[in-house]
Structures
1.
Amino acid sequence: MKKYEIQQNRVVMVDVPVPEINEHQVLVKMHALALNHRDYLVVNGVTRWKLSEDGRVPVADGAGEVVKLGRSVTEFALGDKVSSLIVPNWQDGEMTPAKLQGSPGGPGADGLAAEYVVFEQSAIVKFPQYLSYQDAAALPCAGVTAWNAIVENSHLIPGDSVLIIGTGGVSLFAMQFALMMGCEVIVTSSSDEKLTQVRKLGAHHTINYKKHEDWVEQVMQITNQKGVAHIAEVVGGNHLNESLKCIRSGGTISQIGAIQGVVEGALDTAEIMYKAVNIKGVEVGSKAMHKRMLRAMQVQLMKPVIHQVFDFSELGEAIDYQGSGGQFGKIGISF
Ligand SMILES: NC(=O)c1ccc[n+]([C@@H]2O[C@H](COP(=O)([O-])OP(=O)(O)OC[C@H]3O[C@@H](n4cnc5c(N)ncnc54)[C@H](OP(=O)(O)O)[C@@H]3O)[C@@H](O)[C@H]2O)c1
């Protein structure tokens, strides 16, 4: 079978035998992968995503079909359609550093860029029939993170305003979940074309942050100078100060991202204090959150926004494209 390895900050396709399973494991024939910003950071060795040696299999998220079962596997049958989990050790309950270990496609474990992948039965979930393999592959990292931020760790009520920064994978899921909760949604983007698309998806207000340096003032105007109730902060670094200007008193900023690996910034601590802002770090989400997200999505028949699907043979190109930020939503890979 074909699989990819990261060698010298490039993805290289290699030929290897189909892996064996033990009695507790499941063999999955992969049908789709989806990329995240972190896959770009891992391949390029940026900050905490730097690998200690070559040979790691890239890509965190994927979906496929169960083709072989260990004798002790009880939760799955041959032919089941399953997707991966972003942090398989975090099954439920409070997050701990230990539960975050072993996330696929990062410094701690191999990823899914292979025609066949072995999973522990606890490391996959079935997904509803209305979703395609490509849809299901889009969910583990970006979908669950956005669900965690907007639904599980917010105090939002219908009518509250939510600011979505950018139109990448996490941001569009966050927008869809905020709309699902009946919130008023403001989206910023560097592209008018992408803003036209988010309006079609239901966003109430849009601002081009590249064209309008005063985009923070525009957010304040839209909210009658109150500021928004919740922000999905995916950029990180000094950008958090811009979010602090847009948040209302007592509002919550979900600190999700570090675009291009920027992990540090100066902070206006007075603004945090005067506005009694809740800054809530968000680190992906558990298997239980993933299942609750699937249940909510199924009720609404919500589908992820997939910008473009590359062939498995074009993984390197797709990862470069992910880093360019040109996408609207998710980039998929088909087999
Ligand atoms: N904490 C977690 O658990 C977690 C999980 C998933 C992702 N993340 C992080 O969240 C971030 C987003 O990930 P992703 O996979 O959704 O990325 P992505 O699909 O590559 O999206 C990136 C988008 O961010 C927007 N952007 C970039 N620079 C910006 C700026 N200066 N101001 C405003 N918007 C800007 C752009 O939107 P426009 O093109 O519309 O301008 C760009 O398309 C990354 O930093 C990633 O590492 C964290």
2.
Amino acid sequence: MFSFEDYKEIIKYAKDKGNCMGYHEALGKDEFTIMRHDVEYSVERAYELSKVELEMDFTSTFFFQLTNNSYNVLSRKNMAMIREMHKEGQTIGLHYALNGLTDMDIIRKEIVRDIGIMSEMLGFEINTFSIHRPIKEVLAENIKLPGIINAYQDDFFTFGENITDETPVDVKYMSDANHIWRYGYPTEANIKNNKKVQILTHPFAWTPEGYDNMDNYKSLIEEKESELIDSIDGECKDFKEYREYFVDKAIYRGF
Ligand SMILES: [Zn+2]
């Protein structure tokens, strides 16, 4: 259910509907289909999923965290991948983590600050954000900032408590959080029969093979180990003599 082939099916349904667009273009429209990606753990996986989209002549919005503990969005390698995605037509946004904050004024200021940092470092304007694990108070706040779009603002997301996939809503929202499509799977019917649609996927969950949750975590951990081995190898000349040991331990996958 989480293979690239499965993802291509979803893109096909979205493209067939004929109203796919980004957040800024969709603002004020009566109908739209927005594809969004919140990037956790791995910039590489976002980059790979972007390639799948580009092969199908499709683009979407990828939100990256600035304060993530598993990847550094400002590393040279990651910035190169993100710049390339942007150059190829993908929209890049901030995936803002609350990190325990609840004060709405501070949250608003931090979002503007972080968007400024990311824009300056990446070298292009960022003007869209989504919130990582939003608490309901932040969703209810419906944050709107001048010139900046919130993926959860009421134009793109219908906030309500106890919403299920049966609840009538203005915007049909489908998300793959924790390998579960809680508000319905983006089937052809779910995409076509709703005027306003927002689909959220987490690129770390999607692979060429399409693993279940457990095997997906395994493959992700292997990739991150490989990344660390490469990082140490790139920094320390004497690591080469140990490298074989780690590679032979079969924890090295390489990518
Ligand atoms: Zn998130």
